């Protein structure tokens, strides 16, 4: 005999929230820079929590570490590891120079995130990877804070 089972209405949302993370960095451990780091971290914590359809994964950060080498920044490495594990859907960062000051590292990181289908928002430059020339096959030359970056998407 066939049975019919009633499925009760769930109070759970029918949609998944976007899992968002932020990355912050300061290159020295001077008081002013550490204060800036705390300001960046607070900003992203509040900004992400203000979006009802976003879920804060983490605010990753490195303090007192130069942005010239990605492999020496544990906060950035944790962010990328969580992206590879599909724990993050979008990344926010203050600027390209906070994310990476080395063109090769920056290109590599951006390409990897794009390949994982994880967009990045660089706030200062108003650059969001799904809408930027990076995703349309063009080359974008950005020069900010004495850093020259060439983005190419292949």
Tags for this entry?
154 residues, two-stranded antiparallel sheet, alpha/beta, 7 strands, elongated, Rossmann fold, 4 helices
| Fourth-level CATH superfamily | Resolvase, N-terminal catalytic domain
The CATH topology name reads: Rossmann fold
Structural class: alpha/beta
Count the domains.
1
Main beta sheet strand tally, sense and closure: 5 strands, mixed
Relative helix content: 25-40%
Query: What's the shape?
Result: elongated
Q: Enumerate the strands of the largest sheet in spatial order, edge to edge or round the barrel.
A: 2-1-3-4-5
Structure annotation, total helices: 4
Overall pLDDT metric? 79
Helix/strand order, N-terminal first: EHEHEHHEEEE
Q: Regions with pLDDT < 50 over 5+ consecutive residues? A: 134-146, 150-154
Strand content: 25-35%
How many DSSP-defined strands?
Answer: 7
Quote the distance from N terminus to C terminus: 59 Å
Query: CATH class, please?
Result: Alpha Beta
Nearest-angstrom radius of gyration? 19 Å
The appropriate CATH architecture is: 3-Layer(aba) Sandwich
């Amino acid at each position: 005999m066939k049975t019919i089972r009633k499925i009760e209405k769930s109070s759970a949302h029918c949609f998944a929230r976007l899992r968002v993370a932020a990355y912050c960095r300061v290159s020295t451990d001077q008081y002013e820079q550490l204060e800036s780091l705390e300001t960046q971290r607070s900003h992203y914590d509040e900004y992400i929590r203000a979006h009802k359809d976003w879920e804060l994964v983490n605010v990753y950060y490195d303090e007192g570490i130069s942005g010239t080498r990605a492999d020496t920044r544990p906060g950035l490495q944790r962010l990328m590891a969580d992206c590879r594990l599909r724990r993050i859907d979008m990344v926010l960062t203050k600027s390209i120079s906070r994310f990476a000051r080395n063109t090769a590292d920056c290109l590599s990181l951006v390409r990897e995130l794009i390949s994982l289908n994880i967009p990045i928002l660089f706030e200062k430059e108003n650059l969001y990877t799904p809408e930027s020339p990076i995703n349309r096959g063009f080359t974008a030359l950005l020069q900010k804070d004495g850093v020259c970056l060439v983005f190419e998407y292949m």
